[in-house]
Structure formats: C-alpha cells, structure tokens
From TrEMBL:
<protein>
    <submittedName>
        <fullName>Uncharacterized protein</fullName>
    </submittedName>
</protein>
Length: 167
C-alpha cells in the first residue's frame, strides 16, 4: 500500500516590517518673565511649582541644579535632558528633552526661549512623537493639533500664574 503524501503547507511568512508613525506640533507661548527666570521652571523639579500632578523621580543629578544630562522618571516613562543652554550673545535659550515609554513611543520636546517685550519671553515649544509599536502608532495618531494647542494654552496659563506670583 502506497504511503499518502501529506498536503503541501506554505512556509510561514515573515510579519510585515513595522513602520513607525510620527507627528509633530509647535506652539508659541508668551511668558511673564525673562528667559533666564523661566528656565528653572522647565526642569524636572521646577515643573512641580506649576504643572498639576507632576512628580518625577530624579535619578541624576543626585543633588544640585538640573540641566543637560539630567535623568528622571515618571510612571512608565524615562526622561533625559539632552540640552539646557542659557541665552547667550543674542541666541535664545534652548531646552530639549527626550522621553521613552517602553513599547509605546519616543517623544522629543524642543523649547526655545527668546526675550519678548520688556521682561517677557517668547517660548516656542515643539513636540515630536514617534510610535514604537502598533499601540504606539495609535497613540501618535491620537495626537491632534487641537489637543496639543489646548495642552499648550493650559501649560502657558499655569506657568504664567506661577511666574507672576514670584515677581
């Protein structure tokens, strides 16, 4: 009796390559203090003064002022300050953070602070999100211009309220 040949099976096909989604928005804020006076409020611990619910755990530096190279965490997210430079020779102050939420996204936040009027600051804030998974891509695609603008307006109002109290 001949032995039956098993039916042919197709070899498993590799999963299609992952294609990260990215999205970026920028907003201009008008702040009620000079750039050098705003900068301390844009550190991990400085934001506690005005950002509701903000309570990071600072890993570096262990003590002293935060700035470039600072590393901290918030629930589920790792942060690093990659640039923290004061205004110099007419160049605006620059602050950049990158944060990584494992399995979801990598986000960069670029902030420039330039003098505006008498004692004010024009802050340009740009967020760029990149998805690291299907879930991350859905998160990135959920970022909207209207939502970003609302978040930035709230940030501007809360930071200004704190800056005005400190004068």
């Amino acid at each position: 009796m001949p032995i039956a040949t098993p039916p042919a099976h197709q070899a498993p096909q590799p999963a299609p390559p992952f294609k990260a989604r990215t999205r970026s928005f920028e907003y201009a804020q008008h702040l009620a203090a000079r750039p050098v006076d705003v900068m301390p409020f844009l550190t991990a611990t400085g934001e506690r003064a005005w950002a509701k619910g903000w309570n990071p755990s600072v890993l570096l530096p262990e003590s002293g002022p935060e700035g470039e190279g600072a590393v901290f965490t918030t629930p589920h997210t790792w942060w690093v300050c990659t640039e923290f430079s004061a205004p110099e020779n007419g160049r605006p102050a620059r602050i950049t953070y990158a944060h990584f939420t494992p399995g979801r996204d990598l986000t960069t936040i670029h902030i420039t602070l330039a003098p505006e009027g008498e004692g004010g600051t024009l802050a340009r804030v740009r967020y760029a999100w990149t998805g690291l998974s299907g879930e991350g891509n859905a998160f990135v695609e959920g970022q909207t211009a209207a939502g970003f603008e609302q978040d930035m307006r709230e940030w501007e109002a809360d930071l200004n309220a704190t800056l005005r109290q400190r004068k």
